[in-house]
Write a structure and sequence with these properties.
The structure is a homodimer. With about 280 residues, chain A is an alpha+beta fold. The first copy, chain A, folds into 3 domains: about 70 residues, Winged helix-like DNA-binding domain superfamily/Winged helix DNA-binding domain (Arc Repressor Mutant, subunit A), CATH 1.10.10.10; about 100 residues, 3-Layer(aba) Sandwich (D-Maltodextrin-Binding Protein, domain 2); about 80 residues, Periplasmic binding protein-like II (D-Maltodextrin-Binding Protein, domain 2), CATH 3.40.190.10. Chain A is about 40% helix and about 20% strand. A 5-stranded mixed β-sheet of chain A has the order 4-3-5-10-6. The first copy, chain A, has a 3-stranded antiparallel β-sheet with strand order 8-7-9, with no helix packed on it. Chain A has a two-stranded antiparallel ribbon with strand order 1-2. The mean pLDDT of chain A is about 90. The interface between A and B is large, with 46 and 46 residues. Chain A binds a DNA duplex (30 and 30 nucleotides) through helix 3. Chains A, B: Belongs to the LysR transcriptional regulatory family. Chains A, B: This is LysR family transcriptional regulator. Chains A, B: Keywords: DNA-binding, Transcription, Transcription regulation. Chains A, B: It comes from Flexivirga endophytica.
Chain lengths: ~280, ~280
DNA sequence: GGAGGCGATACCCAAGAGGTATCGCCGCCG
DNA sequence: CGGCGGCGATACCTCTTGGGTATCGCCTCC
């Protein structure tokens, strides 16, 4: 009884996601029969029924759902191994660098200070910035595309990452300067969620669709910035986000919004000295 | 160029650990030439020199060292996927259970309270205890042999695990009742590290060897307990450890020893409701 | 300078991954 | 009710490739 190969895990993930052998095979660039056989062999090897087959398609069993989760994590770890090794080999060729992931549109001020401070450290290497969508930093770290990331509690999950917290700030609502609420010293969440004419914008979900609601759909921060500057939307954001937006806006503290903490995170077993230096520098800011 | 397979990672880890193709091949139950070829192919696939070959043996390159770390983590994730799926399939057969790992010899009182409280929860499943050596809990979680673990900061690393802290306690030194220091209300670490006739016992390192020093070698808690009870060794331990040892001992607070916190930890992407219930129960104790 | 340990090469074989054709099953629709 | 179409499984073949044996070339240490 040989051990499980990543090929089998990739096959299983494809089938489990498509819930259709034909489409999964197509996605994998292979024919359907060998895929069916590979999955059957995997089930025999694990003594587990992973899929319930009907002539109308396929559904996941409990064990299948567990394997889907675990296989994704394992495959992430494998591609991380591959990528990090490739990058380590480049380092040997004389181009050492760290990749720092951060949500696009996040506090440029903090990042600039960090990069500055780190660059003046002894033995510092060049830092490549990798800007990503909200919540993607974790995956970038797990798959080895990034070495360190800045993320923001409570929005981003720190699950499975080591981290150090850098700063904490309250949240404000950004409104056009002339808005009736603009004079208030503070507001509550409920005061601003359903403002007439100033709906909260809608972000795409993980599946690419948008939640229902009246707000305008936004895909990135540029769109958001434009909408807010035009007075077509309001947004609750960390205080530091204010500096990124136009000056014709008022920021009013939202007292009952959760505090936002910025943390620097890295994959658990990182041994890179560059990452350690960067983290140490960040913690001292 | 196809992706990396776990077989190749296993081969590489074997070679990197043995630093000798022949022995690695033997350990893997195969001949040396195909192993050499497999590693060469892996190097080509990653465009990286992983090993420096001399006629006298093999040394790791920088990229090789990175891959060794990453490959171990990835392989752990793969075996975890395998094991958890197997167990999930058993669950479908009607024997649901959670495996709780804990250092052998750790506070039985806390564990008993936890198991009791959890058993009386609705929907609780049976809990299998897995006792292990100090510091092994993390690996058990990562490789899927355990679902939750109790561990103790600052001794155990929480790196890469999600956790909830349960309790904090000071440390005491355990001495024979008649010892000159036994009457003191408190001591400092420096007072008890070099007591004549009461050396600190030595625990095996990760490689199985023992550090140098005068103390007796111990391999498990039974030996330690015996030594302390016989008055042949002193030991600094969390307050709660006291109840496990004989009553002819005095426990004196060590004021400058770090606080010990007991945490319950689980692998990052755990979706098991049983684990969640157990954690919630533990947090309420 | 010869012996022995070590990794690489050359060459062969067989396991097994993958392709094509086809079957059996079951909804669906005319 | 019967044929069509979608889906997964089977049968059978091919050829890639992983693994074995024999051997070489190199270096180190007697």
């Amino acid at each position: 009884m040989v051990a499980v190969e990543t090929r089998e895990l990739r096959y299983f993930v494809a089938v489990a996601e498509e819930l259709n052998f034909g489409r999964a095979a197509q996605r994998l660039g292979m024919a359907q029969p060998p895929l069916s056989r590979a999955i059957a062999q995997l089930e025999r090897r694990l003594d587990a029924t992973l899929l319930e087959r009907t002539s109308r398609g396929v559904t996941l069993t409990g064990a299948g759902a567990v394997l889907l989760d675990e296989a994704r994590a394992a495959l992430d770890a494998v591609v991380a191994a591959e990528r990090r090794t490739r990058r380590a080999a480049e380092v040997a060729d004389g181009r050492p660098a760290v990749v720092l992931a951060s949500k696009a549109g996040a506090s440029t001020e903090l990042i600039a200070k960090l990069l500055d401070a780190y660059a003046s450290e002894p033995n510092s290497v060049s830092v490549d910035m990798l800007l990503c969508g909200p919540g993607e930093q974790g995956r970038l770290l797990r798959t080895g595309r990034a070495d360190v990331a800045l993320l923001h509690r409570p929005f981003d999950s720190l699950s499975g990452l080591d981290h150090e917290t850098l700063s904490t700030e309250g949240q404000v609502v950004l409104l056009p300067a002339g808005h009736p609420l603009a004079g208030r010293p503070q507001v509550r969440t409920s005061d601003v969620t359903d403002l007439p004419g100033l709906p909260q914008p809608r972000w795409p979900r993980a599946d690419g669709g948008y939640p229902d609601g009246p707000g305008p759909k936004v895909r990135d921060h540029a769109q958001l910035q434009q909408l807010v500057s035009l007075g077509r939307a309001s947004v609750i954001a960390p205080e530091s986000a204010r500096t990124n937006l136009g000056h014709d806006l008022t920021a009013i503290p939202v007292v009952d919004a959760p505090q936002v903490t910025t943390v620097i995170a890295w994959p658990p077993h990182s041994r890179s000295v560059a990452v350690a230096d960067l983290v140490r520098t960040a913690a001292r800011l």
